[in-house]
Automatic annotation (TrEMBL):
Top-level EC class as recorded in UniProt: transferase
Pathway membership, UniProt: Amino-acid biosynthesis; L-methionine biosynthesis via de novo pathway; L-homocysteine from O-succinyl-L-homoserine: step 1/1
Residue stretches spanning the membrane: none
Membership in a protein family: Belongs to the trans-sulfuration enzymes family. MetZ subfamily.
N6-(pyridoxal phosphate)lysine: modified positions: 209
GO-annotated molecular function: carbon-sulfur lyase activity; pyridoxal phosphate binding; transferase activity, transferring alkyl or aryl (other than methyl) groups
Species of provenance: Microbulbifer agarilyticus
Gene name per UniProt: metZ
Protein name: O-succinylhomoserine sulfhydrylase
Quaternary structure note: Homotetramer.
Catalytic activity: O-succinyl-L-homoserine + hydrogen sulfide = L-homocysteine + succinate
A Pfam family assignment: Cys_Met_Meta_PP
GO cellular component, one term: cytoplasm
Keyword presence, Protein biosynthesis: no
A Gene Ontology BP annotation from the UniProt entry: homocysteine biosynthetic process
Length: 394
């Protein structure tokens, strides 16, 4: 077992969590087994009861999945992590492990559309109260707090407007009310931002995105204190939204290059954002790396990079936005992000398409908004492709 002796993130991303079998393998093995053989009936009983450590059933104990969990926990600076079948499964598992009828969640409006749907369509069915506030309006968060509040949930930077919240201030606010702060760290990853170091209690990821980095597999993960993660494991053991060993292995391989990839993503994204900011056919660029962004200074203070995802608006509404998207040849028209391949999408009709018109307006999801996730292609080729897309408006 690799011991964390204060190594840098790049070293942890390659080495943390790995345990070798008696075979001495260098790469992490994929344990494709559903169950495990016990040496005796007594040992089987001890493992099922938790009196003896060891694998029980791959729904909630699998060596490959455990290696991924230990590695991402080390990268985020958390005590433990629980991996799930998708990013939404991670959020659902966290909610089911921490909330009960009568509890309240305060959530930013600026979250992934399906996250909003989870709270408004399903958690409310179980008596959970949900309030939505503007991500950057601290007073609104404060006003929404009451004695029933258990979770404050946010994405920072947000999807797709790149708004940034002060994590330390929000953590202090949550703790003042006996609540916990949850940060979806999907856009930054621990390579650019470590919310737990800033006071957050829980971090969630869609591992499908930058943690994988090549758009190959679905997965999610929750990171936090051991006691809370034990509760999440109980839900996983009972209800089964488990990460497969193969997907865990893919994510382990993705983490090995995380820091390298995120630096390259950030460099290209900033270059393209500056270029778009000067383009005659672009009304506005929403990228926190630009000094004109209202949260630029805060992002520079709590992030080590500005990320790969941003959005921009063009004149002409949905028709114009679709023309730009359709005219691009390199950018993939897909709602996924965090891929080596650059992607482009129209949020109002895809990622946030299930929101009502009123909720879209409140979240700033306009019909002329386009979101891009900058990949690892040549940056000049990407700019030329966006120029091709924007030329469709002439």
């Amino acid at each position: 077992m690799f011991e964390d002796d204060g190594y840098a993130l790049e070293t942890l991303a390659v080495r943390a969590g790995q345990s070798r079998s008696a075979e001495g393998e260098h790469a992490e093995p994929i344990y494709t087994t559903s169950s495990y053989v016990f040496p005796s009936a007594a040992e089987a009983a001890a493992r099922f009861s938790g009196d003896s450590p060891g694998n029980v059933y791959s729904r909630y104990t699998n060596p490959t999945v455990r290696m991924f969990e230990e590695r991402i926990a080390a990268l985020e600076g958390g005590e433990a992590a629980v991996a799930t079948s998708s990013g939404m499964a991670a959020i659902l598992s966290l909610c089911m492990a921490t909330l009960k009828s009568g509890d309240k969640v305060i959530c930013s409006r600026s979250v992934f559309g399906t996250t909003t749907a989870l709270f408004t369509r399903y958690m409310v069915k179980f008596g959970v109260k949900v309030s939505f506030v503007e991500l950057t309006d601290f007073q609104a968060w404060q006003d929404a707090l009451d004695g029933d509040t258990k979770l404050l949930f946010m994405e920072t930077p947000s999807n797709p407007l790149c708004e940034v919240a002060d994590i330390r201030a929000m953590a202090d606010l949550a703790h003042s009310a006996g609540a916990q702060l949850v940060v979806d760290n999907c856009f930054c990853t621990p390579a650019l931002q470590r919310p737990l170091d800033l006071g957050a209690d829980i971090v969630v990821h869609s591992a499908t995105k930058f943690l994988d980095g090549q758009g190959r597999c679905l997965g999610g993960v929750v990171v936090g204190k051991q006691e809370l993660m034990d509760e999440v494991v109980i839900f996983l053991r009972t209800c089964g939204p488990s990460l497969s060993p193969f997907n865990a292995w893919v994510f382990l391989k993705g983490l090995e290059t995380l820091s390298l990839r995120m630096r390259a993503h950030c460099t290209s994204a900033l270059d393209i954002a500056w270029w778009l900011n000067e383009h005659v056919q672009v009304e506005k660029v929403n990228y926190v790396g630009l000094p004109s962004h209202p949260n630029h200074q805060l992002a520079a203070a709590q992030q080590s990079g500005f990320g790969a995802v941003f959005s921009f608006t063009v004149p002409g509404g949905r028709e114009a936005a679709w023309k730009v998207v359709d005219a691009c040849k390199i950018f993939s028209v897909t709602a996924n992000l965090g891929d080596a391949k650059s992607t482009i999408v129209h949020p109002a009709t895809t990622t946030h398409g299930r929101l009502s018109d009123e909720d879209k307006e409140k979240a700033g999801i306009t019909e002329n908004l386009i979101r891009v996730s900058v990949g690892l292609e040549n940056v000049e080729d990407l700019k030329a492709d966006l120029a091709r897309g924007l030329s469709a408006l002439v």
